[in-house]
Design a protein that fits this description.
mainly alpha
Length: 293
């Protein structure tokens, strides 16, 4: 379990860079996501080929794995839209609502009773988001987009928790990136019609950022998460990812000087969110100790 939690925290650190890339890359949120899924798929094809993993599945199995790719792809679209319409700090903090949605959606989808502790911790996270929501009305569009993003991320993690028990993590993520990329390609002309972009092809620097984003912050990150989900619940994974904003906000302060845009209400909300993560970590440790006894 210790190794699993270390792996989870490495994934959280990598996730902290995704919001920064959303600001650094000049493409709009949809094109950024399209290139991210496409590059990630190509990297995964190479990895699966090197590992000689079994990927000759039936169409039903491929669709079972791949349909979760629709959720993660459009989660990214809304996530990056949240950053583009506000800033990195607001976008990544809204992602913390994923654990709140998971606490309600997971029992409904898996047909299990609600966990009172998870609901209370999620409500604490929601209170933190509430404090942040009121700090600046100019960021409310970004916050709404971020809430939608976290809802989709929650569904993705819940469904992935089932899939990782049946399929190889690398192969599963390959089919998810393929499905996500295909869906984004189909919708791309419609999206660009309503939301025109000045540039469609990424520049040299954008390509460099996209390759790093795809290889480390997508392929590496989501394969790690898939492995972690074999031993840790979707709720605990999502709640731990509430620490992602800490890394992203520190990076945004250094790179973009975002501290000028944030006030006491924002930091108070962030503190409440961190407290919820610490409480969950303590409860998880207590459960493991009791289980060992």
């Amino acid at each position: 379990m210790k190794k699993t939690f270390v792996l989870l925290h490495i994934a959280v650190v990598l996730a902290g860079f995704t919001g920064v890339f959303g600001k650094l890359i000049s493409l709009n949120e949809y094109l950024l996501t399209w290139y991210r899924t496409l590059f990630s798929f190509l990297f995964l094809v190479v990895i699966v080929w090197i590992q000689r993993a079994q990927f000759n599945h039936s169409r039903a199995n491929i669709w079972e794995m791949g349909k979760a790719g629709l959720l993660i792809a459009f989660h990214w679209v809304f996530f990056y839209a949240s950053i583009k319409y506000s800033n990195v700090s607001v976008g990544v903090v809204c992602y913390c609502l994923t654990s709140f949605f998971t606490a309600f959606l997971a029992p409904l989808i898996n047909r299990k009773p609600f966990n009172i502790t998870e609901l209370l911790l999620s409500t604490l996270t929601l209170a933190g988001i509430g404090l942040i929501f009121h700090f600046d009305t100019s960021f409310r569009t970004g916050i709404v987009l971020g809430v939608i993003s976290s809802f989709l991320a929650s569904l993705y993690t819940i469904f992935n928790e089932r899939l990782v028990k049946k399929y190889d993590a690398t192969v599963m993520n390959m089919y998810q990136m393929l499905t996500g990329s295909a869906a984004l390609t189909i919708v791309l002309p419609v999206y660009l019609y309503f939301f025109p972009s000045k540039t469609i092809l990424p520049g040299t620097l954008d390509i460099f950022y996209l390759l790093i984003l795809a290889l480390f912050c997508t392929v590496g990150l989501y394969v790690m998460v898939a492995e972690v989900l074999k031993k840790i619940s979707a709720f605990t994974v999502n709640l731990t990812f509430n620490l992602e904003p800490v890394y992203s906000i520190l990076l945004a302060m250094i790179l973009f000087n975002e501290s000028r845009q944030l006030n006491v209400s924002f930091y108070a909300g962030l503190l409440v969110i961190i407290v919820s993560v610490i409480l969950q970590a303590g409860l998880s440790r207590r459960k493991r100790i009791e289980a060992d006894l």
